[in-house]
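SECTION: protein entry
WANTED: fold as tokens:
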Amino acid sequence: MSQADAVIGGRAPPFGLWERMLAGRYLRARKHQGGVALISIISFVGILLAVGTLIIVMSVMNGFRTELLGRILGFQGHVFVTGGVLDGAERDRAAARILKVPGVTQAAPIIEAQAIAIGPSQVTGALVRGIGPRDLAGTTLVARNITHGTLKGFGDGEYGGNGVVLGERLAQQLGVRVGETVTLISPSGASTAFGGTPLQKTYTVSATFTVGMSQYDQAYIYMPLSQAQLFFGREHTADAIEVRVKDPDHAARMKGAINKAAGPAAIVGDWTQRDASFWDALKVERSVMRLILMLLVAIAAMNIISGLVMLVKNKGRDIAILRTMGAGQGSILRIFFMAGAAVGALGTAAGLTLGVLFCTYIGPIQDAVEYLTGQSVFSSDVYYLSHVPAKVDWAEVSLIIAWALGMSFVATLPPAWRASRIDPVEALRYE
């Protein structure tokens, strides 16, 4: 049975071979054949760039959040226990009980205070974190990123000894190296009858670290907990018990169990409360950026309408002939729907490929751009990270693909419906 017989007999299945063949033929037709190849190419490129850009931007924002979250939480902890439980021997017992809570990986008493650091090159402010040697070794973000020196011997000696660990940028700013000394001035040292008095002491730099975030690398100094208690006049106490859990996203759910283990005198907070405004701002920025770029995808998909309208106008005689041969309105609608949808589907597929490839090789691309321009495109002083992060979230990519295809399909319906409503008598009257 020929294709014409199938059409006349009305037995051709929807989206059958002859409908697909005509849709492809119309889409590839040249200008002198009544085609709209140039407009189709423009629509294809527009959807490609819009989808690719949306995937790249959202992947970079996901990567930025993941990197930032991992580094901030890897440095500061996930849950914080304060209150009366921090005084005396009860602190160590509370930390031991917290460690037994399922999902808890570390419970470290800490002291965090400001100090003035004096080196051969400069005087600057610093944040000193007092922590036990075992707990510092368990802070993998720092322990695995030691640039010079070693953590071996940290905390050895009376009151923890005089060895400290500096951020790499802070050490460079002060002009000190491993084995050299740095002088720290505490604004509140030992308590006297007249209040706290400043205390000055010289420490030896035993190691330097870098975690890839300038706000930590150029500000923090690690000191043994016992020495920090002595230096800041906080003997027999601590500022908090810093708790780390296996899954930071579950930290808020675990507060109840941690509070129960710590005791009734404990006050428990988590990282979402400590940096709530910062994370809320990131969430809002991500949502707004997604909305804006999805609107751009919709605008790019609307270009399909102009191409299809011209195609329908140019193919009016062909439509009339098909109708007189027995093709129904549904067949005409499907032919032009497939012609327009093909542009959207191919543009979406190409945009997906572009976006994923760009995110996969974003490191070499950044290096190439910096080499060609001689400028840093992602300064850690501004963005906190030393490289452009990208994490492809396939659930979000699926949403982007569904949105692009949906908008492409919706854009094809008005001109395709118009083509199906053409009266063959009127179309052939002046032919």
Notes: Residues 104-245 form one domain.
